[in-house]
Fold this sequence. Notes:
By secondary structure, the chain is mainly alpha-helical. It has helices spanning 2-32, 51-62, 66-79, 85-106, 111-138. Helix 1 (2-32) runs antiparallel to helix 2 (51-62) and helix 4 packs antiparallel against helix 5. The longest helix is centred in the N-terminal third of the chain and has 31 residues, at 2-32. It is elongated, with a radius of gyration of 18 Å. The chain starts with a helix and ends with a helix.
Amino acid sequence: MEKIIIMAMFVQVTLSLVVMVIMGKRRFAAAKNKQIQLNDFAAMRLDKAGDYVRVADRNFSNQFEIPVLFYAGCLLALQLNMASVSITVLACLFVATRIIHSIIHLGSNHLRARFRVFLLGCLSVFVMWILLVLGVLYH
């Protein structure tokens, strides 16, 4: 189970880097199309760049919000030898929801679908943490 958890963490890291590349391409395209000036990047004044750029920026920021709780939970599970099937399934579910969330966010940006996937991911991390706390308290 430990290897699967580490792979789930690697996939989440990879997702973050892929989103960073998408964000960069969108920013450079906006600069090339004269929607923004290069010096706008100094203070990150990207309002004129449009939603296409801002959504990618926001998605990249998202990769360092709830996923931090995921990484901490995975590392705790590994450190405490609590990498159970349940924890592993929840870790994989979280990463799957993050991938789907990013696809929706960077694509159609259908708010209802995006929100449901986001909530499922948050729930998976919360349940993972509940299992970890219960494991610590009762073992």
